[in-house]
Amino acid sequence: MRPSFAFLILLAVAGLSGSAQDATQEKAQQLAQDMHAAFQAKDYQKACEKAQLLVELAPDSANSHYNLACAQARLGKQDEALGTLAQAVEKGWNDAGHMQADADLEPLRGDERFAGLVKKSRENEAKGGWEKGAELEGVKTVED
To answer: Residue 86: is its pLDDT beyond 60?
Structure first.
């Protein structure tokens, strides 16, 4: 089962304001639902199209890139999928175990580039996978 993608997209668009944020969140939720339905129906072309729209909507989201890579891999687009998966890892994807177990990525596992991305994902995991926030006067935070 995939992580709550709609929630993660909502976090990615949380920096928007007011009605623009509401409209973007609604669009992201619908796209995520459509994408998941397409994966369940094994309509990987449609899943790929929806995932691409999510990448455009939330270009800094590691999860949107990860799901696009899954759809590309299912369509036999190995080089594209590896490139997109590399973007997901660059943007902070930190679940190497999920990468290795995800049936969507099975076509990529024999490629040495995949092994390198798993290694980088583990490095992200070791870093905690969270971006340190800005220091705010009078606010105490707890990291990790």
So the answer is: yes
- Please state the φ and ψ torsions of residue 103, each to the nearest 5 degrees: -60, -30
Judge if pTM exceeds 0.90: no
Coil, helix or strand at residue 37: helix
Q: Are 71 and 39 in contact (CB under 8 A)?
A: yes
Percentages helix, strand, coil for the chain (3-state, rounded to 5) are 70, 0, 30
Task: Retrieve residue 118's tokens.
Answer: 């798993």
* 56-62: long-range pairs with CB below 8 Å, 24+: 57/9, 57/13, 57/24, 57/27, 57/28, 57/31, 58/9, 58/12, 58/13, 58/28, 60/12, 60/91, 61/8, 61/9, 61/12, 61/91, 62/88, 62/89, 62/91, 62/92, 62/93, 62/94
